[in-house]
Structures
1.
Amino acid sequence: MIYTELPVPTIKADEVLVQVKALSVNPVDVQTHGGTGISGRLKDQFPIILGWDISGVITAVGEAVKEFKVGDEVFGMVNFPGHGKAYAEYVAAPAAHLALKPTNVSHEAAAATTLAALTAYQALLQQGKLTQGQKVLITAAAGGVGHFAVQIAKHIGAHVIGTSSAANKDYVFSIGADEHIDYNTQQEDKVVNDADLVMDNVRSQDFAATIKTVKNGGTYIKIPNGVPDEMKQLAAERGINAFFYLVQSSGADMKVLADLLGKGILQPNLNLYDFSQMELAHEQQLKGRTRGKIVVSIKM
Ligand SMILES: NC(=O)c1ccc[n+]([C@@H]2O[C@H](COP(=O)([O-])OP(=O)(O)OC[C@H]3O[C@@H](n4cnc5c(N)ncnc54)[C@H](OP(=O)(O)O)[C@@H]3O)[C@@H](O)[C@H]2O)c1
């Protein structure tokens, strides 16, 4: 990863130019940097500018953009799963991927509430169709995706079970979980076997065990990687809909998150870095132990 000076990007008719105040780091950033993640989709564009999550101020608008004007403070996940180019002082972003930042929320908190929060929202409510009173198991509940998932599921009135290490138990309860499973000392399927929905945010999970936590006819959404065919078969035998879901940029969904963020219903937990500390931010991400989000401020 290197720092370099590039021209300020030019914008297309449907884009805005954002002067970035804060950005956030995700596992897919370090994965893509390491040659996995979505590097396959971007290999024709190497060297790339990593990153997708921004919050900042609009300094120019394309002629087709009606929704935003120069000076608006906006946030969003830019062009995922494509080339977001978000680790930069200026980012050209499709207007359709952004929402107005709530005025009572910092750029850092807004930048945090992007890819991970969209993943939680889209997976739980759009794909998983979670409703009030249903039981949902959320693995890695203290992580970037998980801490938003717990807060969203709690907000709609679901019964929330979250997994983490003992160190994050109190935190997982504090953001709204009704039950907690310590994955080091408890086996998930010994604690729950009737979840309407399981949102599995852990990469190397024992699928055969985790699927036992879903009730017959329920839903299992794998977030880190795909569901192997033999596992889909195992799920199908019990009428379980098991699938992988990949988050998509959406300004409409960002507006919903902006509303929740502005009302204090979503409260991102921030681990803050400066733009000169991108290597350190990546080192933290690689450890896989972050509570909430890694956020990088850009001061100009
Ligand atoms: N498909 C998609 O669209 C999509 C979108 C976003 C993310 N993802 C993927 O989803 C995964 C999670 O992303 P993220 O942003 O939430 O990552 P993250 O913030 O780095 O997750 C860190 C958290 O994982 C927890 N953790 C680690 N091992 C665990 C285990 N065995 N059981 C329970 N919790 C565990 C840690 O809690 P403790 O310290 O308490 O262990 C820590 O709080 C990543 O693999 C990422 O690539 C996919």
Note: The mean pLDDT is 97.
2.
Amino acid sequence: MEHNMNSIPELTAQLTYGTWRFQKGWKPLEVVDAEGCYFIDAAGNKYLDFCGQLMCMQLGHKNQAVIRAIQQQAEKLSYIGPGFATEVRVELSKRLQEVLPKGLEKYFFTCSGTEANEAAFKIARMYTGKSKIISRYRSYHGSTTGSISATGDPRRWAVENGGKIPNVVFAPEADCYRCPIKHSYPDCGVACVEYIDHMMEHESNVAAIIVEPVVGTNGVLIPPKEYMPRLREICDKHGALLIADEVMSGWGRTGKWFAMDNWNVIPDILTTAKGITSAYAPLGLCATNKKIADYFEDHYFAHGHTYEAHPLTMAAAIAAIDEYKRMNLIERSAEMGKYMESKLQPLKEKHPSVGEIRGLGLFWAVDLTKNRKTREPFNVYKDKFENKPMTVDKIAAEMLKKGVLIMSWFTHFVIALPLIITKKQIDHALAALDDCLRIADELVTT
Ligand SMILES: Cc1ncc(COP(=O)(O)O)c(C=O)c1O
């Protein structure tokens, strides 16, 4: 589908990512309708959504079961304060116990992922009586004060001059393509996780480490298989809690209910949002194990929200989980992941600008490089702040003209497909990517 750009409000490179842009000249695409994996603009152009909006729409648009559940709940009980028990909350808690990693059985409900992480930090600090939070550089944990302070990527820079919470320290990420400590897997013995042991030894007073089990926006970074089991051991050795931020990696995204399930590692706290309702209602979750929950039996947790455990969001989550099960979407994600891999990897052979293609289930990154030997990216973080044209954004804007929405981020594309996507739709979007990668190929230096 090739669109006549004159019929669409002016597109800019920044349009490809919805929350972090220069305001001057911003003219967003007006969306008027959506169905399944597509959305439609005011001029009638149809776009295939290759990133589930903000990597959150596992069920695609207009899922009738979720819509009906919200409608019915609205008629029955649209709001009640979080201090009351409700049937819908009990029902959701039962569903969560079935799908979350074993033992995560006490739930604090929020309206977003960032709030779930704020709760996690407060719980970890109160429970352990310690104050430090370790996070990793290639990470995003949300935009409120605690979560942005624990965010490793440059979205944190804006709060460095005064707005940051104290006692957050950063560890290197597990990135086997551009290893921050210049090692090479497997000879490295997974030095990046051993360094966290070293950090905990020397920092002392560490309450928790927060990790995205598969790093999302910052590159779909999949740790080596030894990483999470070893991190679990390190946390236990130092009496620090392991917080898995599964806001993006949960809900079938990696071919399992949660990314941690790929290594059978159970965190002490799991936070999530996005796919919990397939984004039909704003719900976040901070789930803890019983030991932590028991502590709060007689310790006051001075924390809460007006919209905490909002009945409409609970109803949406129940329906979304039931839909994931009814349509076998978690298994489907794993199966379709194999198809994605078979179609994506040939792009690396064909395009010199493709450095690495990595993924799990229906969660993939296409990482670009100027030079395959040095793995130098086309752009660095600073370029974005200086409003310089970003190669990945140019490609994403070109793909949008062809009717495909893809998420671009500094060095790579994040592909987070609705779990209902078909092979035909994948082929269509990858044909557009194949075509548009020539923009980067022309800039390759060797
Ligand atoms: C891993 C991760 N954690 C936390 C958040 C913040 O979630 P929210 O935008 O719902 O506050 C995000 C959002 O993209 C995320 O990807």
Note: Confidence is low (pLDDT under 50) at residues 4-19.
